[in-house]
Write a structure and sequence with these properties.
Chains A, B: Pfam families: TetR_C_1 (PF02909), TetR_N (PF00440). Chain A is mainly alpha-helical and about 240 residues long. The first copy, chain A, has helices at about 30-40, 50-55, 70-80, 95-110, 115-120, 130-145, 150-175, 180-200, 205-210, 210-215, 220-235. The longest helix of chain A has 27 residues, at about 150-175. Chains A and B meet through α6, α7, α9 and α11 of A and α6, α7, α9 and α11 of B. Chain A binds a DNA duplex (19 and 19 nucleotides) through loops.
Chain lengths: ~240, ~240
DNA sequence: ACCTGAACACCGTTCAAGT
DNA sequence: ACCTGAACACCGTTCAAGT
């Protein structure tokens, strides 16, 4: 942005020593941004220290000046992605709907970034954006009259549910081999599983065989809303010793 | 078992060419058994094709005659572990309790085998023992009058919840560095997190700072029973249009 | 202070060659 | 049929050396 004047043509015979270095100086932000780009295009497994370094035109050792290691990089990626979660303005009258909307929003952001939910699953949130999400969840529940102990447990339980569902969701879509139509591939996988269940011995697995359609309906959204509904109703049931019902 | 006579002493000067091969012939069962032993002692990350092969006194290439690759090996490990889950004799009158007991039993078995739940999370159950567990869950709910569609969704949701909780649980215990007392290590980690939360800016995170104790209570069992209770009550609410209440 | 090359101790999987 | 050595194309992290 300082020495480069892209509006001027390169004078003849003036070749850069190395083919277009143009490298920005390494920063933590730049590393995390690059890592998220690799995540989005190729999935979490492709985000290796070496791959990120390569993308930045350097070697893996260079990253260690800005990031303590792979684990920290993954944590930083998660919090960067969490910044995309749109938080609601709490409206105490609508706390249950808002809690469900927020959960749906988190799931939307997670699934928009491949299998990033694997990083969230089973890690204590420490990044500022992740903490802001938890803060709003607590605020919604406290304003709705949920007792502190229950609200604390519920943040954990909701988080586990959202992460697990996002991971489950990406199993199908993310494992598509490159070059294949994701939906076509999914269809194939799906038929295979249905056929497998249908071929099971009916005497040992009468319920599974008899409920193949109910078990393999691929609607991830329906499963998510089902679980979310149950959880939020359950949380709400702790609001008062007995209200009007 | 055929050419070896262990009751006879080795004649003098008769040394085995290689130091005590004594190797059983490689079978899928032996490989899976060995892999689970490595899992139990060192965790899932330590279960590599090379490590399992080494444990069997051979090279990694030898395993590929009995197992298609690492993914299949992990699936086989999961189903072998699932064989330890004790299944109840369905008693329709107690279906809700039995469903909760079964979920608790699954969690017990998962956490007894380190982070095996990571394999379960987001994989469709196909092994015979895993299918037997799903079959009983469906049987319990169907006998309790849960509609098929709800029972199908509930098996998924319950499974996600159990896996997520088991993974969360092993975060603390399984990451203990070798040679350190797990509880001491956990204590330290825990104090660190509490201190971090307490030091957060109270104006941006009033609920988190104000609820540190509720948020960091380490009781995994309480969280599990809380979520389980909510889920099973939610499932039960679909039993009839309106019963006696 | 920041960056790097080279090295260390690992990975999963394939394949031609052996028995 | 089963097993193997060697190789291929990767890993995360460290460390002495450079600028």
């Amino acid at each position: 942005m300082d020495a480069v004047r892209p509006d001027m043509p390169t004078p003849p015979g003036r070749k850069p020593r190395r083919p277009a270095p143009a490298r920005q100086p390494l920063t933590q932000d730049l590393i995390v941004e690059t890592a998220v780009r690799v995540l989005d295009t190729e999935g979490l497994d492709a985000v290796t220290m070496r791959r990120v370094a390569q993308e930045l035109g350097t070697g893996p050792a260079s990253l260690y000046a800005h990031v303590s290691g792979k684990d920290e990089l993954r944590e930083l990626m998660l919090d960067r992605v969490a910044a995309e979660i749109r938080l609601p303005e709490p409206d105490p009258a609508r706390w249950q709907e808002q809690l469900k909307e927020l959960a749906t929003e988190i799931r939307r952001v997670w699934t928009a970034h491949r299998d990033i939910a694997k990083v969230s699953m089973g890690g204590i949130p420490t990044g500022p954006h992740l903490l802001a999400v938890a803060e709003v969840q607590l605020e919604l529940m406290r304003a709705g009259g949920v007792p502190p102990r229950i609200a604390g447990l519920a943040v954990d339980t909701l988080g586990m549910f959202i992460d697990a569902d996002a991971i489950e969701d990406t199993i199908y879509t993310a494992r598509t081999p490159p070059g294949e139509d994701p939906w076509e591939y999914f269809r194939g996988h799906f038929e295979e599983i249905t056929a497998y269940f249908r071929a099971l011995p009916a005497d040992r697995f009468p319920n599974i065989v008899g409920m193949v359609d109910e078990l393999t309906s691929p609607s991830g959204d329906e499963r998510f809303q089902f679980g979310l509904d149950i959880l939020v109703r359950g949380i709400a049931s702790y609001v008062a010793p007995r209200d009007g019902d």
